[in-house]
Amino acid sequence: MGELQSYLLKQGLSVSSISEKGRCLFVGRDFSPGEVIFSQEPYASVLDKGSLSNRCDGCFTSGLNLKRCSSCRMTWYCGGACQRSEWKSHQHECLALVNLSEERRNMLTSSIRLMVRLLLRRRLQNDRVISSNVTDNYNLVQELVAHMSDIDEKKLVLYAQMANLVKLILPNEEIDVKEIVQNFSRLVCNAHTICDSELRPLGTGIYPVMSIINHSCAPNSVLLFEGKLAVIRAMEAIPKGAEVLISYIEIAGSTETRRKALKEQYLFSCTCLRCIKVGSDDDLKESALLEGFRCINDQCDGFLLPNPDGKNFTCQRCGLLRNECKTRKRKEEVGEKLDYASKFVSSGKYSEACNLYRIIDQQQMELYHPLSIGLMRTRETLVMILMELKDCEEALRYCQLTIPVYQSM
User: Fold this and answer.
1) Which residues lie closer than 8 Å to 84 by C-beta, 6 or more apart?
2) Backbone phi, then psi, for 408, in 5-degree steps?
3) Which of 7, 112, 220, 302 can pair with 315 through a Cys bridge, CB separation 3.0 to 4.6 Å?
4) In which element (H, E) is residue 358 found?
């Protein structure tokens, strides 16, 4: 940590520990909106199964002329440069994959492959086949919080089974099953989903320094990816001495929804400026706007809250009632259409998906409050579909409709 601290100080950053939060990243100078605060390549990374055959394993770029590894036939490269740069590591993974049966190879999850790559990189760095430095070494991975005391027995058994599978894949490596179990727990809490420029998931990476940065539902920074490179940019002016904060989850949701997601995925209770308002009038209003229904009066933009009788919602602005049973049933019908529409997207039937999502958008406008995240997500999906269909003008129109939701938070 001493070497890392010295390195970060030169970047205008520092690491400090706070009892209730653990390690935190602070700025040692003022940062302007849009300025890069820090960037890091992954210690280990892996493409999702859906991206294996259309993305380069070295740089994560897409292309039509990708070449597949002739031995394991599981990794693809955009050219000789990427293949050569990855070969020191991939040759060992490649041999391990070749020695597996085809059935077992096809069963490998991204998490298993990521762990295999992490362990191989550790050994190659120890043997000085691959260089290490102050921000790229296995010790930083071990320092990440594992939350072992918070994991239930069922998950521990699962991690142990996965660790034994890793041991089977790498029979010649010195593997401590207990250490691998802890590493799987670290990955769950600390690994980052690598996305493209349109925020579509491509794979998973472990970025030890990035993982020092804490979460807030009102972040001052954002994590973006340039290929596999993780980049933290300031979203607003950050004064000297302030903590760098990003969001681990989708922040367009009620306090209850956000806190539940953080507890389940990252095993902590958020106490940021937005979350400490839980139960207050402002929090109830925000929740009703983001996840609630609209007033039946088209001219009213009030928010609805359920009545104690359990039969109606009442608009907090004009007082009109909306039948709860009918509203819930309508929500279920829209949900069924959403499930059906997503299948069109998954199968690449974008025209059919576009037509159905337009219908859903109209029905959600009648059902949800205009600032609803459900309506926003439908429109974000429409933006993606319309871009695939090369209808940029219509995509821009739907994109503009999503902006008020973010402005309201």
Assistant:
1) none
2) -80, -15
3) 302
4) helix 350-367
